[in-house]
Design a protein that fits this description.
With about 270 residues, this protein is an alpha+beta fold. Helix content is about 55%, strand content about 10%. It has a four-stranded mixed sheet with strand order 4-3-5-6. Strand 3 and strand 4 form a beta hairpin.
């Protein structure tokens, strides 16, 4: 079940704070460490979050100006992305961190005033407030994983990953659609263990197609931060197998994901 906007905003703030605690003490050289996203350093991951937290706020408070952002992005996305990254690369790490802190404060404030049920425009779609905030949390969590991987550190897992799991199952059809395919109609049961030990599930437990295992692993697969072969997920049935091969909880064209064996199971 979707959670309340207040819970989502609290968990988004906590997820942002956890990533802040990871990058704030870093020396300047560590901000240049490469991450698994080709061509992106740690600083680029933070720049991405800062930019899209700013544009998310814009989408809430000024739909007309945000529409101009969408037009620019769709006209030439590589140039659009290259532009915001180049501007951020001109900043010292402390200035970039300050920018992200201001961006996320602005987003939390604006999102906290959203009216229930009123869609928020985004790039090529509109989302209800809860889905909009869940997407920002998923972005923070997944780019935070890129930062941790780039630094070679393990981060503490929390039950906030349930929001990523929720978005992951809700975007099953999207994963097929962006590849020009219709999602198979067969139901898929997802049963996951949260870091606390609590269970999280979606779908009919009697379904023949199933995905079970650690919720963190499921989140890593649907955000394409791990190849499914490098996780402890148990996949049963052809529909579940194909979904986990192409799962993509984020917007945009099909992502390339990670290579099998790139992050071997410990």
């Amino acid at each position: 079940m979707p959670e309340s906007l207040a819970v989502l905003l609290r968990d988004l703030e906590d997820e942002q704070a956890a990533l802040d605690a990871l990058v704030a003490p870093l020396p300047g050289t560590a901000w240049e460490a490469p991450t698994p996203a080709e061509g992106w350093a740690v600083r680029d991951q933070i720049a991405h979050l800062a930019f899209f937290d700013e544009t998310a706020t814009l989408a809430i408070v000024d739909a007309e100006r945000f529409a101009a952002e969408v037009t620019a992005a769709f006209a030439d996305f590589p140039a659009y992305e290259g532009g915001y990254l180049a501007r951020a690369r001109a900043l010292a790490p402390a200035a970039l961190l300050a920018r992200w802190r201001a961006a996320r404060r602005g987003l939390l404030d604006a999102a906290g005033r959203l009216a229930a049920g009123v869609p928020v425009p985004w790039y090529g779609l509109s989302m209800r407030p809860a889905a909009f905030v869940t997407a920002r949390l998923m972005e923070t969590w997944s780019h935070g994983q890129d930062v941790a991987d780039g630094l070679g550190v393990a981060r503490q897992s929390t039950d906030r990953v349930r929001h990523v799991a929720f978005l992951g199952v809700r975007t099953r059809g999207h994963s097929f659609a962006i590849r020009g395919r219709s999602a198979p109609e067969a139901p898929v049961f997802v049963g996951l263990a949260l870091p606390s030990g609590a269970g999280w599930m979606d779908g009919d437990p009697a379904a023949a197609d199933r995905v079970t295992g650690p919720a963190v692993d499921f989140g890593l697969v649907v955000t394409q931060r791990r190849h499914v072969a490098d996780t402890d997920l148990v996949i049963e049935g052809p529909v579940a197998t194909e979904w986990m091969r192409i799962a993509q909880a984020f917007a945009g064209p099909p992502g390339s994901g990670r290579r099998p064996g790139q992050f071997p199971r410990r």
